[in-house]
Amino acid sequence: MAVAGTSVFAGDDAGSWYLSPMLQYHLMDNDKALKDNFGYQAGVGFNLPHEWAIEGDFSRGNFDIKGTGGARRLSAYSIDIAKKFLPDSRFQPYALAGGGELDDRLSAPGFGSGTYHTYLAEAGAGLLTGIGSQTGSTRVQLRTEAKYRMEWANASRFGVKDPSNLIFGVGLQMNFGAPNETPPVIKEVVREVQVAAPPPPPPPPPPPPPLPPAPKGEIRLQGVTFATSSADLIQESYAVLNTTAASLKQYPDLVIEVRGYTDSRGSAAYNLKLSQRRAESVMQYLQSHGMTNRMTAKGYGKEDPIADNTTKEGQLSNRRVTLHIVGGS
Hints:
Blueprint: E1 17-27, E2 37-48, E3 52-64, E4 71-84, E5 91-108, E6 112-131, E7 138-152, H1 155-158, E8 164-176, E9 218-220, H2 237-248, E10 255-260, H3 268-288, E11 294-299, H4 312-318, E12 321-327
Parallel strand pairs: 10-11
Antiparallel strand pairs: 1-2, 1-8, 2-3, 3-4, 4-5, 5-6, 6-7, 7-8, 9-12, 10-12
């Protein structure tokens, strides 16, 4: 049964069990032939949820019969149900009720002894008071109670019909296995740790090598060719133009004129327009592949041949596109 200790009250003892030894005093209520006397009780119980408990008790008392040398020994075996109140208080009242068997042993000088077995019912109330801490798994409480007990008996055998008595008790209740609600003790440990000096930072990486000098003059795009009588680049031209764009991105300040040329076949006007379209096609390809230079495109037709136009090899050489470095660095 959970009653708070001296500093922290613990309200949850469900699942724990307890032992309860008690000293009793019996007032023989309607059996006036018996003298009042002390007795004892030993109990074991189990705490249920919602402040209920169930316990089994054994109690015994010896009572002299007035005016004779005889005596009666009452031994009771009972099972009680208890309901506790104020679970979070230092003082925890409770009510109980139960029943069981009573062995009534009568002895008298010259008559021997005999034991009669009957049934009993009892009900009462009590108070549990916490002793010491009530937050650990083991808790001790002072138990005081008063209960009324009645036997089922007939007058011819027991001298009085349904004898009853009032029983006062005081003792201890020792709980085991209650939830441990003691807050953990946290100790702060300060430890001085020698920290090694950090290693020196690595040396900075070497500076990148300087760029080669910017190209000057004219760059011939060897391998850049077009479909017949068209400004459409053929696929073999892409590798040359990709390499050219990657190398010239390092020099974004160069001013470039893309020049287109044809061989001498066809009219001058046709060749001039065709070379202009081909120069623009190359310029647009370079711009779409990351070149940010200032560029212009201009077609020169069949002007400035570099080979003999009377041969196929010469005509192939004259059909060309070049990059002319106009300025910048």
